[in-house]
């Protein structure tokens, strides 16, 4: 009775709904743009950007950001192609698994996801520091409140919608870009603008390291592809490009603002929150509180989405036995993987303590940047394999893809070379992440099949029939 | 090869046979189409208040489109495989709101326990 008939189309907003539920509106380019940019614009990225600015200085940091942005613009095209062929919420894992194989998919993508979770620990401490500027709460306690509070919201099944995400993203953009422009005017008033921006040329190795670290700033922009199930292919492709442009403008401008900070700390300064410093320079306590609130809101909206997505990912891996089976439980009322959420909260708390007690601030940024560069290299190579490879692609374009992948690997090496006293801790973090990934890959077997269900076959009916 | 509607009817029988599971889905309305990307076959089902109300091919619009190859869809409908596995590794794609897929995934996981 199966026929090769026209496939029914998806219901969209405005269509008469059959039943109690109204069809959900498809997110447009604007909503996806805010989601993609917002995911990358984490508070921890401001610290990464500050580090780039301290490393190479002035307009050189803007150049590093722009080169990072240019690389990500090419990657946006690649991710658009991957998502067009496999429009899956599983995104990177689905792409690499189809292009290479499942075990390589798990081995190569999991470290990137683990490093994202590790960064949550750092992000939580930043939020703790932001909360400490608003209320007499110690930084670690504020971090704990942030993690547990977000977890409780996720546990109830509540996910921040596109409008709320857009509000937090654009508010953060306007606030920090505005403050950065004010900082530049302040430097110009003091006659110091050119000396702050036109700094001595950095060494080649430092500049390469800065470009490699700039990739960290864009980390997460490719997660726009995870919305492919609810958005059109065109919207996803445009949002990928748009996110790169928005992020490049944002980081370039804020970097200039950081160059114009009056009293930046020296290296090895522990937890320093540059967005608070720029707020303090611009105005009084009111501006600081406003910036702190905006950053906490942005961090919350990012972490909410990330935690729910990671919990579903963990749940799916647990169902297959890659992760412990007790995590393979779904709450029927809220449709949340509560066991996986609890495990992720535990991990996030552990990572927060690790970052705090071992001062792994820079090592976590470096290792995240390296994992991003490597997974982007893998994605680049995956795009040249079936089913993603366009048969009409010129050989020179394939060579260009290979060169891009090698360039990304070179950037990752550059980050390690220039890591200085954080090199050993960076390498240790990466070893832990890749070891865990290799173990998960080892547990990723072939397809598990059971015996089919034993139900008497009913008679077939030719038209719509009630069972 | 088993036709998709036949496998789907077996699945529906198994689902309706678990009354607790059906009761848990009260209030869930969803129109789903399964599309075999290799054979271009498709079959649809309409769920009303948690029960499968209709099976067939005559639906103009749906809430969820599930696409995979014929063998994977059969494996899922005959409860040999959990849909998470092909989904995570890019062998099955969905289009439509996530909450419908999460609910369907929950139903599958109960019927096809790990």
Please give a quick description of this structure.
Chain A is mostly helical and 467 residues long. Chain A is 68% helix and 0% strand.
Description:
The complex is a heterodimer of chains A (467) and B (114). Chain A has 467 residues and is mainly α. Chain A has helices at 29-40, 43-56, 58-85, 91-99, 102-134, 139-155, 162-189, 193-197, 204-218, 233-259, 274-282, 285-319, 338-358, 361-382, 395-417, 423-443, and one strand at residues 9-10. In chain A, α1 (29-40) crosses α7. Chain A starts with 8 loop residues before the first strand and ends in a 24-residue tail after the last helix. With 114 residues, chain B is α+β, with helices and mostly antiparallel strands. Helix content of chain B is 40%, strand content 27%. In chain B, a hairpin with a 5-residue loop joins β1 (30-36) and β2. Chain B starts with a helix and ends with a helix. The chains are: A mainly alpha (467), B alpha+beta (114).
Secondary-structure element sequence of chain A? EHHHHHHHHHHHHHHHH
Strand content of chain A: under 5%
User: What summary fits the major beta sheet of chain B?
Assistant: 5 strands, mixed
Per DSSP E runs of 2 or more residues, the count of β-strands of chain A stands at 1
- Supply Rg of chain B: 13 Å
Unreliable segments of chain A (pLDDT under 50, ≥5 consecutive)?
A: 13-22, 454-466
The average pLDDT value of chain B, as a whole number, equals 90
Strand order of the largest sheet of chain B: 3-2-1-5-6
General form of chain B: globular
Largest β sheet strand count, sense and barrel closure of chain A: none
What proportion of the residues of chain B form beta strands (DSSP E)? 25-35%
Question: Number of helical segments of chain A?
Answer: 16
Which oligomerization state do the chains in this entry correspond to? heterodimer
Along the chain, the helix and strand elements of chain B come as HHEEEEEHHEH
């Amino acid at each position: 009775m199966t026929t090769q008939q026209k496939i029914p189309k998806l219901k969209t907003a405005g269509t008469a709904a059959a039943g109690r539920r109204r069809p959900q509106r498809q997110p447009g380019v604007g909503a996806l743009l805010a989601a993609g940019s917002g995911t990358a614009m984490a508070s921890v990225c401001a610290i990464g950007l500050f580090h780039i600015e301290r490393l190479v200085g002035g307009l050189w940091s803007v150049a590093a950001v722009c080169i990072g942005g240019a690389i990500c613009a090419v990657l946006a095209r690649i991710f658009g192609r991957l998502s067009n062929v496999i429009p899956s919420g599983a995104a990177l894992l689905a792409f690499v698994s189809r292009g290479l194989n499942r075990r390589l998919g798990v081995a190569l993508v999991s470290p990137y996801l683990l490093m994202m979770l590790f960064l949550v620990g750092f992000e939580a401490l930043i939020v703790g520091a932001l909360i400490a500027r608003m209320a007499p709460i110690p930084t670690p306690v504020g971090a704990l409140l942030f993690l547990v509070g977000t977890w409780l919201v996720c546990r109830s099944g509540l996910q921040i919608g596109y409008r709320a995400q857009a509000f937090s993203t654009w508010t953060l953009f306007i606030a920090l870009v505005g403050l950065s422009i004010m900082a530049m005017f302040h430097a110009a008033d003091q006659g110091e603008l050119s000396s702050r921006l036109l700094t001595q040329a950095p060494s080649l190795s430092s500049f390469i390291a800065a470009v490699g670290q700039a990739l960290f700033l864009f980390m997460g922009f490719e997660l726009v592809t995870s919305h492919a199930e609810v958005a059109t292919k065109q919207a996803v492709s445009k949002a990928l490009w748009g996110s790169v442009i928005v992020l490049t403008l944002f980081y370039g401008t804020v970097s200039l603002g950081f160059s114009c900070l009056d009293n930046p700390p020296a290296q090895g300064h522990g937890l320093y929150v540059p967005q608070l410093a720029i707020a303090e320079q611009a105005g009084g306590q009111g501006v600081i509180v406003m910036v702190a609130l905006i950053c906490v809101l942005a961090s919350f909206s990012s972490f909410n989405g990330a935690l729910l997505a990671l919990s579903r990912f963990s749940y799916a891996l647990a169902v297959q036995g890659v992760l412990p089976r007790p995590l393979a439980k779904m709450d029927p009322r809220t449709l949340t993987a509560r066991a996986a959420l609890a495990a992720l909260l535990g991990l996030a708390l552990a990572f927060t303590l690790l970052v705090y007690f071992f001062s792994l601030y820079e090592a976590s940024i470096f290792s995240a940047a390296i994992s991003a560069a490597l997974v982007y290299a893998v994605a680049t190579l995956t795009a040249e394999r079936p089913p993603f490879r366009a048969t009409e692609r010129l050989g020179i374009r394939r060579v260009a893809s290979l060169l891009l992948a090698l360039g990304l690997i070179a950037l990752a090496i550059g980050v390690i070379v220039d890591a200085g006293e954080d090199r050993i801790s960076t390498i240790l973090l990466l070893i832990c992440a890749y070891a865990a990934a290799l173990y998960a890959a080892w547990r990723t077997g072939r397809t598990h099949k059971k015996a089919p269900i034993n139900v008497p076959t009913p008679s077939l009916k030719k038209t719509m029939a009630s069972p | 090869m088993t036709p998709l509607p036949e496998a789907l009817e077996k699945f529906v029988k198994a689902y309706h046979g678990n009354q607790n599971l059906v009761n848990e889905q009260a209030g869930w309305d969803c129109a789903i189409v399964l599309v075999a990307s290799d054979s271009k076959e498709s079959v649809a089902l309409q769920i009303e208040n948690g029960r499968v109300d209709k099976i067939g091919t005559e639906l103009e619009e749906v809430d969820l489109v599930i696409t995979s190859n014929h063998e994977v869809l059969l494996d899922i409908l005959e409860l040999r495989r959990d849909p998470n596995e092909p989904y995570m590794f890019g062998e099955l794609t969905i289009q439509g709101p996530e909450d419908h897929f999460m609910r369907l995934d929950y139903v599958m996981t109960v019927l096809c326990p790990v």
